[in-house]
Design goal:
This protein is mostly helical. It has 3 domains: about 120 residues, Fumarase/aspartase (N-terminal domain) (Fumarase C, Chain B, domain 1), CATH 1.10.275.10; about 210 residues, Up-down Bundle (Fumarase C, Chain A, domain 2); about 55 residues, Orthogonal Bundle (Ribonucleotide Reductase Protein R1, domain 1), CATH 1.10.40.30. Helix content is about 55%, strand content about 5%. The chain is built from 17 helices and 8 strands. The strands form 4 sheets. Strands 1-2 form a two-stranded antiparallel sheet. A two-stranded antiparallel ribbon has the order 3-4. β5, α8 and β6 form a beta-alpha-beta unit. α1 packs antiparallel against α4, α2 crosses α4 and α11 runs antiparallel to α12. The protein starts with 13 loop residues before the first strand and ends in a 12-residue tail after the last helix.
Length: about 475
């Protein structure tokens, strides 16, 4: 007898959702909807997705908006609670795979904003007992995006994301500066040759040299810190062009207060919403401070590589920690890998800054449509710079060791010791001593006695390398 029972039908792989352009097939399992699906189809560009901090910031804007609109009596409290619950799930790490729009997308970030709106709307609908795509329960535009526009949501979200990420950069720079300051104190008694133009210069103490690195990084952190206050000034509530159309007059101040409660960051409403929406200058300022820090890091990391070069045929005044084998063919070779990584990241931050600068100049009239690029590049720069500095501090700076013997060797042989003779013998006579030393290989001390007429004890006193690291004349 034939078994007539039918096997269960496979679950549908897509569902139909509708936007103002018509129906769109959406993966059945997706929390996003029609506009996100269109963006996925339109922008298969890089495979890069919105930075998690940018997603979180946008989600917090939606929570603040839902709370505010509910308290103003414009959004049913039941819907507002469902939207907030859905948002809380995202902030807790769920549904992260639903933010699928490429970072290179439609201008201003409409695709990103709608991706967030649709995920929240569909999840809120489920929480209310409905199904995904049921816009009658929770609508992504009318409910989640109430009193908002991409044009005020996105610049607000970029600000909040940057304010969330920047403290990690500050902490990393501060830690590296402190580690180098500790090294500077420990190495203050080590005398070495200074070098200018990569040529012999007058003596300097290794501690003095490294203290300059520490102060440079402290100053770099200060520039980053100085760029943050303007980011806390928000234009949210300006909606499409800054006029606040479709937002209750009380909305802007209240939504900023809600965002302050949500983030724990002091925030203020922009006195001129048009400026806040037209200009990306605050992002340029922060990115510029990151670029300045990156330039310092390239220089300092390069100095570590130079001073650690060798071990036998380079300068060898520092010993760089070995973190991995340095060659696939040369046994025992150790490279300054962490300093090399730091340079690569710094170059990337500098390049990202160039993209942000061009994007900031690309606005027209009431809107800068290049905001998605700024969001991606600024978040990326903040993240990789913090991680790189932290790794360099932990895996390189802490383990740096000084080769005091090698440093002293160079300090006592630099021909620029003769600089100390200039006040006693005159610049021209000291220069002649240098020429003779270079030509013959004889020491500056020896020639100061023979050609300069100094007594041996006086020559040794004047040309003592350690004494020459302090202010004063011979």
């Amino acid at each position: 007898m034939t078994d007539r029972r039918r096997s269960p039908r496979p679950a549908p792989r897509t569902r139909l959702e509708r936007d103002t352009m018509g129906e769109v097939p959406v993966p059945a399992s997706a929390l996003y909807g029609a506009q996100t699906a269109r963006a996925v189809r339109n922008f298969p560009i890089s495979g890069l997705r919105a930075h998690p901090a940018y997603v979180d910031a946008t989600v917090r804007v939606k929570i603040a908006a839902a709370r505010t609109n509910a308290r103003l009596g414009l959004l049913p409290r039941r819907k507002a609670r469902a939207i907030e619950q859905a948002a809380r799930e995202i902030l807790a790490g769920r549904h992260r795979d639903q933010f699928v729009v490429d970072v290179y997308q439609a201008g201003a970030g409409t695709s990103h904003n709608m991706n967030v709106n649709e995920v929240l709307a569909n999840r809120a609908a489920e929480l209310l007992g409905g199904r995904r795509g049921d816009r009658a329960l929770v609508d992504p535009n009318d409910d989640v995006n109430m009193a908002q526009s991409t044009n005020d949501v996105v610049p607000t979200a970029i600000r909040l994301a940057a304010l969330e990420l920047a403290p990690e950069v500050l902490a990393a720079l501060a830690a590296l500066s402190a580690t180098l300051e500790e090294k500077a104190r420990a190495w203050d008694g080590i005398v070495k040759s200074g070098r200018t133009h990569l040529m012999d210069a007058t003596p300097i103490r290794l501690g003095q040299e490294v203290s300059g690195w520490a102060s440079a990084l402290a100053a770099a952190a200060g520039r980053v810190r100085d760029a943050l206050p303007e980011l806390s000034v928000l234009g949210i509530g300006g909606t499409a062009v800054g006029t606040g159309l479709n937002a209750d007059p009380r909305y802007a101040r209240r939504v900023v207060a809600e965002l302050e409660r949500l983030t724990g960051i002091p925030l203020t409403l922009a006195s001129n919403p048009f400026y806040a929406m037209q200009s990306l200058a605050p992002f340029v300022a922060l990115s510029g401070a990151l670029r300045a820090a990156a330039l310092e890091l390239v220089r300092i990391g390069g100095d570590v590589r130079l001073l650690g070069s060798g071990p036998n045929t380079g300068l060898g005044e520092l010993r760089v920690p070995a973190v991995q084998p340095g060659s696939s063919i040369m046994p025992g070779k150790v490279n300054p890998s962490m300093a090399e990584m730091l340079a690569m990241v710094s170059y990337q931050v500098i390049a990202l800054d160039a993209g942000i600068a061009w994007a900031a100049s690309g606005g027209q009239l009431e809107l800068n449509v290049m905001m998605p690029l700024v969001a991606a590049d600024l978040c990326h720069a903040l993240q990789i710079l913090a991680n790189a500095v932290r790794a360099f501090e932990e895996r390189c700076a802490r383990g740096l060791e000084a080769n005091a013997e090698r440093a002293r060797h160079y300090a006592e042989r630099t021909v620029s010791l003769a600089t100390a003779l200039a006040p006693r013998l005159g610049y021209a006579a000291a220069a002649e001593i240098v020429k003779t030393s270079i030509a013959t290989g004889r020491s500056i001390v020896e020639l100061a006695v023979e050609e300069g007429g100094l007594a041996p004890a006086e020559a040794r006193r004047i040309l003592d390398a350690a004494r020459l690291t302090r202010p004063g004349r011979a």
